[in-house]
Amino acid sequence: MITPGSRVPADLRLIYTDELKLDTSWITGELEPLDFCDTTVPKNVTALGAQNIALNGCLCTSGTGYGIAIRTGDRTMLQRLTIIGKIARVTSKQKGEPTRLELEHKRFVNFISTLAITMATITFVIGLLLTNFQHLINTFVNGFLVIIIANIPQGLPVTLGAALAIVARRLATQHIFMKRLDVVETLGTATVVMCDKTGIDEIKTKRKHLSLTDLSVPLSE
């Protein structure tokens, strides 16, 4: 039996309802409770969309209902979605495609490395020719290693990290917190950010500002 204030203990096929309303915000993200009934639904309707199936974990806000348990324990839709969520979190940890900043950084490093090796090789060969292939070690150190080391931008990682940290700090003042600094540059080029609010709020949204053209007025006024 489902009564106001109780949660559905399992996935139930409703056989009787009396103005039953259930809070399904954990599935749909909708603020308003949905109406449920005991009538038969078309075959093409899924379990998540069927109004005659009360899913485990839903909160009854009003009305009453009776149902027959069709799924319990780990077989309920709540547990299935939890398992799917765990799988999604595991797969999301896999390294995805590199960001534009990473590609540009890699391209720049490859260019500098190629240029340094080319210059060092030419200098080393010229040094060998001028010394008649004598003092090989000195020529290698002074004409090859020194040029390569001199062309390596040692301060590039520090400078790049500091710049990204500054941008991330500015975004934090706008209540945007970055988990990865390497995506800051990509996010900085975005003009519109869209996200699903399901699962990231308290299902209690409030209008705090009313925007009229370019004027924003707090609703408290």
UniProtKB/TrEMBL annotation:
Q: Which InterPro entries match?
A: ATPase_P-typ_TM_dom_sf, ATPase_P-typ_transduc_dom_A_sf, ATPase_P-type_domA, Cation_transp_ATPase_P-type
Keyword Zinc part of the UniProt annotation: no
**One cellular-component annotation, GO:** plasma membrane
Gene Ontology annotations of biological process type: intracellular potassium ion homeostasis; intracellular sodium ion homeostasis; potassium ion import across plasma membrane; proton transmembrane transport; sodium ion export across plasma membrane
* Database matches in Pfam families: E1-E2_ATPase (PF00122)
Q: Where is the P-type ATPase A domain?
A: 2-81
Query: Which Gene3D superfamilies does the entry link to?
Result: Calcium-transporting ATPase, cytoplasmic transduction domain A (2.70.150.10), Calcium-transporting ATPase, transmembrane domain (1.20.1110.10)
Provide the GO MF annotations for this entry.
P-type sodium:potassium-exchanging transporter activity
Location(s) in or outside the cell: Cell membrane
- Bilayer disposition of the protein: Multi-pass membrane protein
Q: Which terms are listed as keywords in the entry?
A: Cell membrane, Membrane, Transmembrane, Transmembrane helix
Query: What transmembrane ranges does the database entry give?
Result: 108-131, 143-168
What name is this protein filed under?
A: P-type ATPase A domain-containing protein
